[in-house]
């Protein structure tokens, strides 16, 4: 859930589905004779290592405690989606006998066992961090999560009234007996398993009670309390202590919390003869009823209740996770949003990119005039999305000289000003094309709604190409100027989502370069028409040419190193698992090419292995923002080439998606990216370093015990200084 809200290590709850699309159907990689067969790290265990890094942020006492609570919530949300998609997909393939990509000699069942063992370890550690560290520190700061038994009579009276008025009417206890079969348990819902005894007959019965998901996970006990000293109680704790209201005349024998995670790895079979929206809507209905793949239970659950749940849900012992209460620590998002500035990261207000500032005379020029003066490289969230990309589209919608707007939409916010700008443009009589990707995992229903709303406004809505997801982030504006048509383009690394743009680190390029304009015009025509077949001038486009282009650049660096010429590769990505790309990087390293890889999440490449990858360094950085941008930099014998765009180095991005990278053409932009990398890879910058065995070691303090440089704070200060002085790149 590429799963996030309040600020946090990943900026907020991660983009749902961002890291978890199905990558199981790639063709097997041919064995390379002179490279070791165990040269790849396991993808799933690498992802769990990433989520462990998130957990280590929650353990870091130097981070404000409400931010650490947010990291705990992010960890929980991440792990939920990992089970719903990746673990579910692995299990499905094992059960159906389909191939599961693993390291040579590793049985698929062993992969699941390794994942289960690591997940059990991490979930236990996660619960302990909350119970033993974060919760006590929250309490010391005046934010108390208390239990019913610890409350005095006056507080219990307040909650009794709240329960009676606000909770009891919406509760629905479901009995399980010969007349009432075991009920459907919805995925990720929090439930109470209740055993009761009829006081007249002595008969024992079982009931399931769903904790209402529309109510706050943690309830404020007394809203008259100041935020400097405020108390909360878990919703299920309050309900558990009022079960007598639900089962009058019955004796409550046992009650325990439990939570089920279901397989939501829905496979959509595209057919050119069927309506894609209808196919997706059918698939979304099936998703709700996927088989259970994880059962979380309270630590004190008795064996009778557990046996019943395991039998009825058809869960294996390996899939049961016994944890201390409260379950579902994703509910900590509610606490992490408390307005306690002293317990959060210091506030940061994004600046307007210097190139888009008003002139020295104070005259506000149009954004089109600013872009005509030269390419504008944007770095969000340090530079404002609303005064750049959003303003670009809003001005285009209102400008009478703009004739057409074309844009891709992969994910956007619920009240998106971007979508509204497209609607306004269409209603003003402009030609508007929106490519809405209906198959963006877990955003399918929202995107169907956007597509229908856009169509009603007169926007030409298309859904891309059969068999491919359109993941690229593109906008093209055609404007009439002095009798000629000029193209204004935006290519980004992140979605057109104003909310996540304040929390996700991304790059974007605004340009009036006619080469980019012609490239995007052709690409949009092909996306709304037929297959992509052409090469482009400043773009690398998947699925046909992006992989080839990157391999060609890697090969050039390899040849330059062999020839004794300057060489080097720098890559910033979310995930790298593609074996062909990794093998090319291994070849480059064996030739002596210095390679820096800055990865947020999954990394199947091994760094610093003698004879294989000695010149490769791999780093990972987490912080208040989610590092989301993708950058590819090649030394090119002293004339560096840099690309930014939407693609990670995964099978899906290179083979089954429409992805776009754009080459930067301004030397100052190339230098800015290079400086960004230099800071990230510096030994004095806080980060995680990958060791040759694939393990990650956090470097947060120096030999003197003082904190190392925070990359995001440093970039924030540098860009803010640029804004104050009006200095352009």
What is the CATH architecture descriptor of the largest domain? 2-Layer Sandwich
Identify the CATH class of the largest domain.
Alpha Beta
CATH superfamily of the largest domain: Polyphosphate kinase middle domain
In DSSP terms, counting alpha (H) and pi (I) runs of 4 or more, how many helices?
19
Radius of gyration: 27 Å
Strand content: 15-25%
Q: Averaging pLDDT over every residue, what do you get?
A: 88
Which segments are poorly predicted (pLDDT under 50) over 5 or more consecutive residues? Answer: 1-17
User: Distance between termini?
Assistant: 36 Å
Shape, principal axes of CA atoms? globular
Q: The biggest beta sheet, please?
A: 10 strands, mixed
Give me the secondary-structure category.
alpha/beta
Within the CATH hierarchy, at the fold level, what is the topology of the largest domain? polyphosphate kinase like
Number of strands: 27
Number of domains: 3
User: Helix coverage percent of residues?
Assistant: 25-40%
GO cellular component, one term: polyphosphate kinase complex
Family: Belongs to the polyphosphate kinase 1 (PPK1) family.
Organism: Alpinimonas psychrophila
Cofactor: Mg(2+)
